[in-house]
Amino acid sequence: MDFLIEIVLVILLALFSVFVWWYGTIPSNVPPGPMGLPFLGSALDTYKASTLYDTLSKWRDRYGPLYRIYIGNQLVLILADWNTIQEALVKQGDTYAGRPSFHTIFPEELVDSGLLNSEGELWKIQRRFALSTLRDFGFGRPIIEPRIKDEAQYLSDAIEAYKGQAFDPAPWLSNAVSNVVCALVFGRRFDYDDEKFRQILSSLRARFAETDFSIITSFVLSERMAKLMAHVPVVKKVLKSTIEVLSFYREETSSALKDFDPGRDEATNYVQAFYKARLDREDKWAFAEKQLIASVGNLFVAGTDTTATTIHWGIFFMAHYPDVQEKVYEEIRKETSGQSLLDYGDRVKLPYTEATVLEMQRMANLLPVGLYRRTLAPSKLCGYDIPVGTVVVPLLGAALRDPEVYPNPEVFDPNRFLNAKDEKGAVFSYLIPFSAGKRICLGESLARMEMFILFTALMSKFKFYFPPEEPKPPLKALVSILNVPIPYKVCAERRSD
Ligand code: HEM
């Protein structure tokens, strides 16, 4: 009996020592947060996709808008309101501009490369190059508008072909939005009946809808841990679909380069410009094949389902809020003399419509947990000491649903944006669906243009409503990497010209 008691005491003492050692490893002046378990930290609490944002929000209520958790032995800092996001990502932009390695969801050739996954000098060169090259091809400038309007027309034709029958708008929206990026990146578009392209887009959408955050949180664990994770079925599935899409990027890249002579020809798309950059730039080391494929992939993925899903939400909201839909339609009809394909500049004549697009983005809350960053140097944040290599989560959803900024945050109400311009007369600066700081979304200007032109084209041509014979789908999201609306069908009735 004594012997048994001794064993129990030894085990308890060992456990106690492990806890003491574990908590002793937490640096002294970091923000407060849950203790978690030795070796695992809070990994078990953050495991499920469907609850990650809720779990992080609950901790926000307990620890305030700046707190820390551990995933394994990795320190993770949560920025859970607009102010802490500004203090870190904007005011200390260089320090907070790193990106952790996404070992678990990307094959090795995409890890630490391209626009989205690199950091340091490689990222700076790639980002500067992408911004200036894409601007030359029309990014955020009126010269891209005819291309977006063409897609708006194709999209409207595809929707009209349903003749008021219920349909799922998601595939058509992905195709339309993706074609704008494909024109810039590969110099071509894909017909809506191109089966192979539809397959690629559908596999991407499924990946966004199914990718569990448990995979994402694990990417801040070690490379060794990622290798173990590679055997988990859901990780295998994600990697397999990424590899399939990689071969699409390779094929399209070589088609874009077919008959292109970098020494002689002017580049007419991103792939060609990238290839040409290898000729005479001093920093040509940053333009290797791996970087080309990775950055093409980043533009394709980041530029497709983000914008398309926001418009997908937009149609969902309009069918749920027919009064808002009518007001938008009436404003477009009155102020633009019935034109259906508008310019982005027309938004100044359409304050209610513009406010509706902003509210659409706020409520869509597309990336509620943001994209993880990493600190590149030690820093002081709100009086705390943040070590180099800390993973940083800008909890964008908390900023978009902050009741102090947006009273009744769960209600869809465009009126909240009607007079809410910042000092430059631009969009409301508290609205940060594109994140903030040095790594703010690279495609923001294009996305804003696409959302406005495509949304107004649809609103001016159709009235969207749920099939009357079926129960109305609830305004709910499938929570994954992206907040995607639950699958739904709508009817689109052609408005009279
Ligand atoms: C409504 C549409 C979109 C939303 C809400 C959105 C949101 C975001 C967010 C939250 C980030 C992470 C920024 C951070 O690190 O904190 C991001 C990054 C990025 N986005 Fe977007 N995005 C959209 C559309 C686009 C489009 C159309 C493109 C390109 C054609 C694009 C390209 C990128 C790229 C390349 C990055 C990585 C930037 C970097 O790491 O330097 N995005 N986006």
Short description:
The chain has helices spanning 2-24, 49-63, 82-90, 120-136, 145-160, 170-185, 195-210, 213-218, 223-229, 233-257, 270-280, 289-302, 305-320, 322-335, 351-364, 396-400, 444-461, and strands spanning 66-71, 74-79, 373-374, 379-381, 384-386, 391-394, 462-465, 477-479, 483-485, 491-494.
Write up what this structure looks like.
- The relative contact order is 0.16.
- This protein has 497 residues and is of the alpha+beta class.
- The model has no long low-confidence stretch (mean pLDDT 89).
- The chain has helices at 2-24, 49-63, 82-90, 120-136, 145-160, 170-185, 195-210, 213-218, 223-229, 233-257, 270-280, 289-302, 305-320, 322-335, 351-364, 396-400, 444-461, and strands at 66-71, 74-79, 373-374, 379-381, 384-386, 391-394, 462-465, 477-479, 483-485, 491-494.
- It has one domain (41-494): Cytochrome p450 (Orthogonal Bundle), CATH 1.10.630.
- It has a four-stranded mixed beta sheet with strand order 1-2-6-3. Strands 4-5 form a two-stranded antiparallel sheet. Strands 7-10 form a two-stranded antiparallel sheet.
- The chain contains 17 helices and ten strands.
- Bound molecules: protoporphyrin IX containing FE.
Going by CATH, what is the homologous superfamily? Cytochrome P450
Q: Ends: how far apart?
A: 91 Å
Strand order of the largest sheet: 1-2-6-3
- Give average pLDDT, whole number: 89
Q: Largest sheet, if any?
A: 4 strands, mixed
Low-confidence stretches: none
Judged by helices, strands and strand pairing, the structural class is alpha+beta
Order of helices and strands: HHEEHHHHHHHHHHHHHEEEEHHEEEE
